Amino acid sequence: MVQAIININEHANRILNIIKAKFGLKDKSEAIDLMAEQYEEEILEPELRPEYVKKLKGIKKQKGIKIGGIKEFRKRYSLK
Asked: Which of 20, 24, 73, 74 could form a disulfide with 31 if both were Cys (CB 3.0 to 4.6 A apart)?
């Protein structure tokens, strides 16, 4: 186990306290561990989740949008 002294703002401290209370954790270290695990599952590795694969398959079945050239692209998306 690694020990670290960290500086966090008041809002982050409140969030850690809420997580600690909600999940019945002993200390803020456990709250940070839980946050890191959830971040990894939901943000870093979404391609491994079955829901993500299902979503991708649905997107793949959708009809594509023909844009043509750069002028049409800019016009479609209101770019200069």
From this structure: 20
The answer to whether the CB of 34 falls within 8 A of the CB of 23 is: yes
Write the DSSP string, 1-65: ---------HHHHHHHHHHHHHTT-SSHHHHHHHHHHHHIIIII-GGGSHHHHHHHHHHHHSPP-
C-alpha 38/C-alpha 48 separation (Å) is 14
pLDDT bucket at 48, cuts 50 / 70 / 90? low
pTM of the model: 0.55
Query: Which token pair is 70?
Result: 């750069």
